[in-house]
Predict the structure.
Amino acid sequence: MPLWVELVLRVGGVLVAFLTLPLLVGQAEHKVMAHMQGRLGPMYAGGFHGWAQLVADGVKFVQKEDITPREADRAVFRLAPAVALVPYLLVLLVIPLGPNDLVGQPLDIGLFFVLAVVGVGVVAVLMSAWASANKYSLLGGLRGAAQLLGYELPLVLAAASVAMAAGTLSLSGIVEAWQPWWLLWQAPAMIIFFVAGLAEIRRPPFDMPVADSELVFGYMTEYTGLRFAFFLLAEYVGIVVIAALTTVLFLGGWQGPFADDQLGWLWTLLKVFAVSFVIIWLRVSYPRLREDQLQRLCWLVLVPASLAQLVLTAAVRIAL
Amino acid sequence: MSDPSEHGGSSGHGLPGAGLVKGLAVTLKTMTSRSTTQQYPDVAPELPPRSRGVIALSEENCTVCMLCARECPDWCIYIDSHKEEVAVPGAARPRQRNVLDKFDIDFSLCMYCGICVEVCPFDALYWSPEFEYAEYDIKDLLHDKDHLGQWMATVPPPPAHDPNGEPAKEETAAARKAAAARPAPSAVRPEPGADAGSAS
């Protein structure tokens, strides 16, 4: 296979995943949330149980007027949605789907790259917040910055724990080194990573920066039409990314009950959807954390716990 | 105020985090049970038998006694009639009977109290569960006797008598009539309270 065909296939595959997985997760969120609240959710769009609801939403967003506030910093304001979206696309590029290099771009420092790129999200939040020239946007953006900077630390520490355990920064290498008993050994790190990941993508119950009951819509207040849709899409790609990272780092990625070589991609996808379901489930079940509770959880619970997990991981590594 | 640092949210007693698990269990249980949504325009709702949707008129039962119009609290029933002479063969002189010309109910005024249905001595008015008669103009909510008559087809049969309830007045009256050997003509109607002694 010539190089360019392989390149096109890989990038095309990642792009398809980038465009379809968030829609699947979004539709699942519509339906799961509805049924958890005793409702049915969308039932009309597309005919069968509203399967095309998000497509219809997308068409609607495209038709809406694209408004830039007069006082806004135009260039920054217009760039922010793209900055929010692109990092997640780049992350999807290095997440392994199956064994034997079934990945957009195998990278030896995959974990490092992923954590660095996910950290770019805070820039998009601050850009949209400052550029909107709106006090609610600014409040939401500052909350978002404080939250993202705070939760970056337990996220990185928890990921460092599993990297230490596996002895590699390559995501494929981590999956290969993973063994089922790690579920116990790395359980605290998994929970910390998952919770911090939820906060990183500002999902409820960590949606203080958006907080639609007090800040209109946080840093997205002034956005309309396609740019707003980009922010929403970024949120759902974020769910996929966090679910995929939790899968790859802590749940054994493509390692399944049988036929890992042929069905590895299926195990990965199943795990990703299961974790996504949990993310939706948490959103439905829990109320939003107050700002001080949010910071307290991060600095007084997650950071010490992740440091303790690091010590545990190091101890076990040396002992073995 | 509880310590917000406690991730477990240990409100009260039990293991830390028990409340969080309980919350997850509630949503999961709701998800797996049937949702309560009624898909109304697609699926007709199942209304209880005594639903007060609209008042139907059985025109042949009406004797134009005007009781309904007089009892109506907001005067939304309009009745017009004229007298007709009916020559009965063999009778000494022709009988007179009332013929209904107009029987309108203004549903923009009606407050669905049902007094007219209760008060009608000849069962000319019925509740129908039909409720889809919204109009764009408030004037169109005034329905004439033909339209009210069309709703008679939607009147459900009366619900079966509750076996634990007290028997119907007609039944007790018939039973008393049968028990008394030769009832006086005035005893056809039971005295009020005679059969309701157990209820009150």
Summary: Chain A has a mean pLDDT of 87.
